[in-house]
Amino acid sequence: MAIFPIGKWEKGQKQPTLRQLEAFAKRTMTPLGYLFLSAPPEEKLPIPDFRTMGDTPIRRPSPNLIETVQTMQRRQTWMRDNLIEQGQAELPFIGALKRRGDIKTGAERIRKTLGLSEDWAAEHETWGRALFTLCNAAENAGILVTTSGIVGLSTRRTLDPQEFRGFVLCDSYAPLIFVNGADAKSAQMFTMAHELAHLWVGYGGLFNLMHMQPHDDEGEKYCNQVAAEFLIPAGKLAARWPEAINTDDPYQAIARWFKVSPLVAARRALDLKLINKSAFFVFYNRYLEELHRQKAQAKKTGGNFYTTLNVRLGRRFAYAVVCAAHEGRLLYREAYELTGLSGKTFDKYATRLMERIRGG
To answer: Under a CB-based contact definition with an 8 Å cutoff, are residues 96 and 107 in contact?
Structure first.
């Protein structure tokens, strides 16, 4: 690992060589040209930023976040052109809730389009299966869904859930939802629901929901409310609340029933005035302490590379790229650039993907 004499560079005691600058730029993920500027440029996100600040200011977007957004934008642009070329019609549900009305009606319209019942989450034993069902339903409806906790395929560049939980790129042909896979599965469920609501409202943005507080933007608040009703219908929670408070951990019980995080369960109980703010924040602080303890003890496992690719690329997007390459509508070089795969790795993944799709 190269060691750079940064202190001497800053004091003017030593000048870096071009090779050192190139190595430094690569290590810090900085464009080489930036190092020759008198002041660093202000890097702005190419999408609306609806992250909340809490008690601290939002930091500058990291190179990992910016690159991830840009990669998803390139994929969306290709997918949009591909769908139009194939005669795909615009998706009718994009922007269908521009005239924001009743929260319950908004949640019901999303469930209906996705083919999900009000009790859909309770039909699954685990958060993982419920989340898979939701993502699969979204893709079947025409939405590109990508879940990843790293930049591209680089396992050394992990995405920080504290910086962002997800974002949505709205488009009437190829809407795209990105979920930060470094977040807990139960937390990813709310991110998915929130970003789905954004598509129905008709605009995209970046999301984190720090301290369970939505951005001051009225549209963001509406998306939050629709997402909460989509996951935990008010009537269902009210009916089961007496049962929940008779358990050792009411919020964990609600989380199990509706396949959300206990934090989302507690926030929903607060919004419906089943608990007060004092009770919520007592639980909130205890929950964060437990979460930090679990993260410190957690052990990461690799999993199957090709199975994970289906999630990181998104089944709908990956299938479109593979088909276009096989049919000669897309150069393999371009397919490699879009997926981050190349040569035998791309071929092997493409074969497995096609076999899986044909097998149902």
So the answer is: no
- Name the CA radius of gyration of the chain, rounded: 22
Q: Closest by alpha carbon to 198, among 181, 180, 215?
A: 215
Written as six digits, the tokens of 280 are: 């919520």
Q: Which of 104, 105, 137, 139 is nearest to 120 (CA)?
A: 137
Residue 271 structure tokens: 């919004």
> Within a 10 A sphere around the Cβ of 319, how many other Cβ atoms?
18
Task: Categorise residue 336: left if φ over 0, alpha if ψ from -120 to 50, beta otherwise.
Answer: alpha
Q: How far apart are CA 146 and CA 277, in angstroms?
A: 35
Contact 286, 272 (CB under 8 A): no
pLDDT at 291 over 80: no
pTM for the structure as a whole? 0.85
Tell me, what's the pLDDT at 212?
59
What string of DSSP letters covers 264-319? HHHHHHHHTTSS-HHHHHHHHHHHHHHHHHHHHH-------HHHHHHHHH-HHHHH
Q: Is the pLDDT score of 34 beyond 70?
A: no
Q: Which helix (H) or strand (E) holds 201?
A: helix 185-201
Burial 80-94 (b: 16+ CB within 10 A, else e): bebbeeeeeeebebb
Question: What's the Cα-to-Cα distance from 7 to each of 11, 13, 15, 39, 58, rounded to whole Å?
Answer: 6, 9, 11, 18, 28
- Read off the pLDDT of residues 191-237 as tens digits, 9 standing for 90 and up: 999 999 999 999 998 887 765 566 677 888 899 999 999 999 999 99
